[in-house]
């Protein structure tokens, strides 16, 4: 019986953490909606991608946040499935590659680079549904992602050691 209570608390704690990450991603995206969607965008909520470096389970929180936030996208029909799956895959690949190094700056760079390159999926959706040219759209969306990931990278470089230590202490 005692083990069952611990497992229940652990599961509840895990679900709350995932929900908090999803909620924060969604809230920041929607609060800054005019800048979060379209051919010229800076989605500052992308900084939450870096939380996957703290705990692997946060991949699910960010992915859920993307799914919910993308329901408000003008290109939601494609953005919900493609954006959600693309984020999930990028987070898994970025986390796997980042685990190969101990250097924080390199982990952050890996995450940033993967997400900037992956913006071809967003540009493709916008080009297809908005009838705009792909390459200029890819350029503007990738630059916006680079700005978002750079801002998030600077914040996470300062916070990551403390957050990781805190997460390990509470696990």
Automatic annotation (TrEMBL):
The coiled-coil segments of this chain are none
Source taxon at top rank: Bacteria
Q: Which UniProt keywords apply?
A: Membrane, Transmembrane, Transmembrane helix
Q: Where are the transmembrane segments?
A: 14-37, 58-76, 82-98, 110-132, 138-160
Tell me what this protein is called. Citrulline cluster-linked
Query: Which organism's genome codes for this protein?
Result: Lacticaseibacillus saniviri JCM 17471 = DSM 24301
């Amino acid at each position: 019986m005692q083990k069952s209570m611990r497992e229940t608390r652990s599961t509840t704690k895990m679900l709350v953490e995932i929900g908090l990450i999803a909620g924060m991603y969604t809230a920041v995206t929607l609060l800054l909606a005019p800048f979060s969607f379209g051919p010229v965008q800076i989605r500052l909520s992308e900084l939450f991608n870096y939380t996957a470096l703290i705990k692997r389970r946060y991949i699910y929180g960010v992915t859920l946040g993307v799914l919910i936030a993308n329901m408000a996208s003008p290109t939601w029909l494609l953005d919900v499935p493609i954006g959600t799956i693309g984020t999930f895959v990028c987070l898994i690949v970025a986390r796997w590659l980042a685990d190969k190094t101990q250097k924080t700056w390199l982990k952050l760079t890996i995450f940033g680079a993967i997400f900037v390159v992956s913006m071809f999926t967003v540009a493709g959706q916008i080009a297809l549904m908005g009838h705009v040219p792909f390459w200029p759209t890819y350029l503007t969306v990738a630059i916006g992602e680079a700005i978002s990931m750079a801002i998030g990278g600077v914040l996470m470089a300062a916070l990551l050691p403390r957050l990781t230590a805190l997460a390990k202490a509470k696990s």
